[in-house]
C-alpha cells in the first residue's frame, strides 16, 4: 500500500509519520478523531489540512493495525 500524504523525515517531528511533511503528526490527527472531533471541526481548526489527509491517516492506521498483534486481557472485576 502506498501513502502519498504520509511522510517520514528525521528532521521533522523526530521522524514521526506526519501529514505531507508538515509538522503535524499522524498520531495527533488520529487522536483528535478518536477523542470525538469531527472531520469538519478538524478541517476548520487546522485549515492547512485537507479532507484527503484525514482519509489517508485513517488508511495508514488501519494498515498498521493489520500487522500489529496486541495481547488483550479481559477486564477483571475488582474485589
TrEMBL record:
Pfam families: DUF433. It comes from the Bacteria. SUPFAM superfamilies: Homeodomain-like. InterPro entries: DUF433, Homeodomain-like_sf, WH-like_DNA-bd_sf. PANTHER family: SSL5025 PROTEIN, SSR2962 PROTEIN. This is DUF433 domain-containing protein. It comes from Bradyrhizobium cajani. The lineage of its organism: Bacteria, Pseudomonadati, Pseudomonadota, Alphaproteobacteria, Hyphomicrobiales.
